[in-house]
Amino acid sequence: MKTTRLLAITGALLTMAFSQGLQPTDANAYEFFTGGACSKLKWAGDPLFELSTISFPGQFSRAAIHDPGNTIENVGGHWLDFGWTTFNGNAALKNGDNEIYGASFAQWDMENFAGWARVRKNYVTCKITEVDIVFDSDDLWYRGVPEDYGFNYWQSPYWLTINGQSRKSMRQVALHELLHAAGLRHEDNTWAMMNYGDRPWSNHQPEHQMSPLPDDRRGLRVLYPNSVTENDVAIVNHYVNYDDVSSNGVPRQRQLCVAAGGDGFSDSMFDTYCGKPTKLFVCPGDRIYTRFSIANYSTSSTTVQQRLYFSSDTTLQTFLDTKSDTVWSKSLGAGRHHREGHSFVVPADLFTGNVYNLIMHLESDLPNEFEGNNWIPLRGQIVTANNCNPAFHNN
Ligand SMILES: [Zn+2]
């Protein structure tokens, strides 16, 4: 599998200071485009992006751009609008219009890139004046959400193999490029879409499954301040891996380990299993080792309770599913995230000889908090052993 980089920035040589093993220091990790005397550059008004009807011929294709774009609008005010024209932008770079289209990257010797945001800036006014976003038409793309292709959102990577062909996710690339278009630069020091996003699908409505992470949102709110209050926390099963750095210095994000029993945590959060030595058959009193990430999208701080549910399927039904007695609590500032590693005691009131899915659930203290993305099935399953002392319930 060839390595891929999500993007290049026109004319900008990124000098990324990075040392391996660096711990996240996300105090103000979001980065803006700079130049001249400008510490940041932003749009003066709402830019209109014209989508090529040749590159994006139908509603499904168009939604691959619109949906991630709308998740940005919900954060930083209405600065992003989409039009729909018949142009084919190949010959028309930097013509004064904001365009989104597909073209062969081979002509620019950029075969390893998937998307490209060409940002034109005015260093006198500190304004962004034009952005063209180009997708590599030599790549095979998938434009929907994972479920459209029979994949689970919680285990879907940036690459999917569909009908034997390797495809890239347009929504992830689109969100990354649109955030560049808003004025955000690459970020190598925290968990963000401006990092090289790999699998940040969350359990949201399809059009919101791919949305800016907390660090991206804080950057947008600084660029385009508004008085909108947001109360939302989410859980996902990936995190940024500072030991896996792309060729231009940005650490990649990776799926976290599969929840499992054991005597302790695995050495790395990116190991295959979180429990070491890995135990998939468990008894009452054993511990399940889990890793996951909490994203506080909110404009306020929050405290979240974290609880593990044992479910016969991958949907959380709090009435039916058995919950852990173990509860962990975490307080997060506005627009902050945290990577969690916790173990949960296996309760005795499970049934013997059953396969259970493990679902992690967050409960936030914020009023009117959107709860749809507060739970996620962790990857993997455990089995309740038959020969336990004390025993589980009998079926
Ligand atoms: Zn980028």
Describe this structure in words.
Helix 1 crosses helix 2. The protein has a six-stranded mixed β-sheet, covered by helices on one side. The protein is mainly β. It has helices at 59-76, 170-182, 214-223; strands at residues 5-9, 31-32, 48-52, 81-85, 98-103, 113-122, 127-136, 141-142, 159-162, 165-169, 184-185, 233-236, 238-245, 251-255, 260-261, 264-265, 275-276, 281-282, 287-296, 302-311, 322-332, 337-345, 355-364, 375-384. It is built from three helices and 24 strands. The chain binds zinc ion (ZN). Zinc ion is lined by residues 6-7, 176, 180, 186.
**Alpha carbon gap, first and last residue:** 46 Å
The CATH class label of the largest domain is Alpha Beta
Please compute the radius of gyration using only Cα atoms: 22 Å
Total beta strands: 24
Mean pLDDT: 87
Number of helices: 3
Whole-number count of domains: 2
Q: Bound small molecules, which ones?
A: zinc ion
Shape: elongated
Provide the low-confidence segments as ranges.
Answer: 1-25
CATH third-level topology of the largest domain: Collagenase (Catalytic Domain)
Binned, the helix content reads: 10-25%
